[in-house]
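ok trying again, last paste got cut off:
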Amino acid sequence: MCGICGQYNFGDQSPVRLPDIKAMMDSIAHRGPDDEGQYIAGPLGFGFRRLSIIDLAGGHQPMADQEASVWVIFNGEIYNFQELRSELQGYLDWPSGTFASDDWWWRAIRSGSN
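nice, full thing came through this time. structure:
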């Protein structure tokens, strides 16, 4: 089930406040009682609540690449994850789950848009 929330201050670009993100996360705690995480960068802030079904010990979000230049919050099930695992192992820093390269993301985006 999980829950995602966020805020972007378009107009004045003022920094997002952590208490505001936490309040949003608390309001959706019933959607994900197993884990939580947040990412705040200036006028942008995300919050995540996790319901663990598969990969009970892993899956903490948000996730970032090694440079912390790309951040991802994901809600969903990847049904063919076992088939993708061998391909992803070349691009992920296991067991941390951080992406070692942005190349895989761009290839995935391009192939999905064809």
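cool. Strands lie at 3-8, 35-41, 44-50, 63-64, 71-72, 92-93, 98-99. The CA atoms of residues 20 and 52 lie 24 Å apart.
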